[in-house]
Amino acid sequence: MSSVAESVNKRAIAGAFGRAAANYDVVAKLQQQTGEFLMQQVDGHPGKLVLDAGCGTGFFSHRWRQQGKQVIALDLASGMLDHARQQRVADYYLQGDIECLGLADGSVDICFSNLAVQWCDNLSSALKELYRVTRSGGLILFSTLAQGSLYELKQAWSAVDNYQHINHFLPQQTIKDACQGFRHRLISQVYRQQYPNILPLLASLKGIGATHLHCGRQQGLMTRGRLTALEQAYPRENKHLPLSYQVIFGVIYRD
Prior knowledge:
Layout: H1 10-20, H2 24-27, H3 29-40, E1 49-53, H4 59-66, E2 70-75, H5 78-87, E3 92-95, E4 108-114, H6 123-132, E5 134-145, H7 151-158, H8 172-178, E6 183-195, H9 198-207, H10 224-233, E7 241-253
């Protein structure tokens, strides 16, 4: 595992996702939607060995095996990897960091990373590592959250206090810049979810392990009063609370 950068506390991130493992697939509807779309970008590629980088519970490791692929399941969180191993979703299991992969150059045919690289300290270094371990003629498929994700929640929190509650997500241009050295294509999509009130909305974030902030946890407990104030400040659509995710999908061709 790589050294921990000051801006990203990877141990805390791994812990948050590890604690979410048991119930992750129940609430991780966004991850399942984006992962299915990302798999469709393979477009008949014949590669047999897939690296599922940031595999989580192994939901998509299992999907890849259903397509006849051999799968290396890799995750930073030991709790997630343990869950994946118990489900027997992959052929190999590796605890590790996408920015410092413990794999040889050109050792896999397809790298697949669904909503994981936004937790990396440096997107460029993560993509370079995925490119390094992919064989010539292979594919690197990734999805990531971009700036604008969770903007409704950010807006509501700004009316309650001055703490930073929402993770910093990269602007789309920064993501484009990180891909400039590769032959690639990018797809941008917005996913929107709706909730009847604030509790299931917050639970959906906690359930996918996404409550950790890059800059550290906000100060102050979530009291009933703060929860009420947050819900009152939240923008509504048809009496529901919307939550938006700006998702960028990337396909990089390994030349």
